[in-house]
């Protein structure tokens, strides 16, 4: 039995989780090859590199999205739901204004601050040509079909579908929509698909049999979105964390994103301190923000 312990002392997001698993020995090239089975490789490219976070070397993973032939780069992790058009300008706590709704399955536009950054130089990256048309939105059911029809293993499909369902149900509940009416704006859908399917691929690649997780810090404060000021954690994030122990935090930021919350909620069998086990490997995944008092990283510990 191989146990993965998610030591999320600075919260969790999709890209932090993938970065940590890659740092713990995951094969990034194989990850890329497996993701090609989804047949959306012309919509994004992956980049990863080591960065320093308050004295700790951690791996920063990003999905750079190519939307309608333009090279928009999004440091990602979105899973917010909307039902009207993108094209809104979002204010993020890290001070960047974006002209699209990244990633949110939709009943209104959320512009949450994410645990990611926008200044990445990368060691790796594979470019694709993307001269193709896109639909404005991807429905939850379309994403399910995309995963089910792929050549991924059944185990990877099942894990990914469970995580996506968790997000879809939470978004639907918050916005008063049945699951079949939940839609993801395309840019964010690609982000979420890569994060979620990528996490499933790496978990099975690393032969993880059990996942345990620390209590989850979500941060405090408020975030500005188009429709006003919303509390941290975002409503859908909190919905997914029902039944999960949260850890009090004084950090004024969105530490745990919707995708991060879904990963913890679906994958972890239990929550608490580090279990009794023999540690074999440790990985650090970098978040985007930098905090003065602690390294903004996600630590994963794998052992028997």
Automatic annotation (TrEMBL):
Keyword rRNA-binding: no
UniProt entry keywords in alphabetical sequence: Nickel
InterPro entries assigned to the protein according to its UniProt record, in alphabetical order: Kininogen (IPR002395), Ni_insertion (IPR002822)
Residue ranges of the region described as Disordered: 68-135
Composition bias, Basic and acidic residues: 68-102, 112-134
Keyword Heme: no
PANTHER family in the cross-refs: NICKEL INSERTION PROTEIN-RELATED (PTHR36566), PYRIDINIUM-3,5-BISTHIOCARBOXYLIC ACID MONONUCLEOTIDE NICKEL INSERTION PROTEIN (PTHR36566:SF1)
Protein name: TIGR00299 family protein
């Amino acid at each position: 039995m191989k146990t993965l312990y998610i030591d999320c002392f600075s919260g969790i997001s999709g890209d932090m989780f993938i970065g940590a698993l890659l740092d713990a020995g995951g094969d990034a090239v194989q990850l890329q090859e497996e993701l090609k089975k989804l047949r959306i490789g012309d919509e994004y490219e992956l980049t990863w590199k080591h960065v320093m976070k308050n004295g700790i070397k951690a791996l920063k993973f990003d999905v750079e999205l190519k939307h309608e032939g333009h090279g928009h780069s999004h440091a990602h992790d979105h899973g917010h739901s909307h039902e009207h058009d993108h094209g809104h300008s979002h204010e993020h706590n890290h001070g960047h204004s974006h002209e699209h709704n990244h990633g949110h399955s939709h009943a209104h536009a959320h512009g949450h601050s994410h645990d990611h950054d926008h200044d990445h130089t990368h060691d790796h990256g594979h470019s694709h040509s993307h001269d193709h048309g896109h639909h404005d939105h991807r429905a939850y059911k379309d994403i399910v079909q995309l995963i089910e029809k792929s050549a991924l293993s059944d185990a990877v499909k099942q894990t990914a579908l469970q995580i996506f369902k968790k997000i879809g149900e939470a978004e639907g509940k918050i916005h008063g929509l049945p699951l079949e009416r939940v839609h993801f704006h395309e840019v964010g859908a690609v982000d979420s698909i890569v994060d979620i399917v990528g996490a499933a691929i790496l978990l099975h690649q690393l032969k993880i049999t059990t996942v345990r997780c620390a209590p989850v810090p979500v941060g405090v404060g408020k975030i500005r979105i188009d429709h006003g000021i919303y509390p941290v954690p975002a409503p859908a994030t909190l919905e997914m964390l029902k039944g999960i122990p949260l850890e009090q935090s004084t950090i004024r930021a969105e530490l745990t994103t919707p995708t991060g919350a879904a990963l913890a909620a679906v994958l972890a069998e239990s929550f608490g301190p580090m279990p009794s086990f023999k540690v074999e490997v440790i990985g650090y995944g970098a978040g985007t923000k930098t905090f003065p008092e602690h390294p903004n990283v996600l630590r994963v510990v794998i052992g028997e």
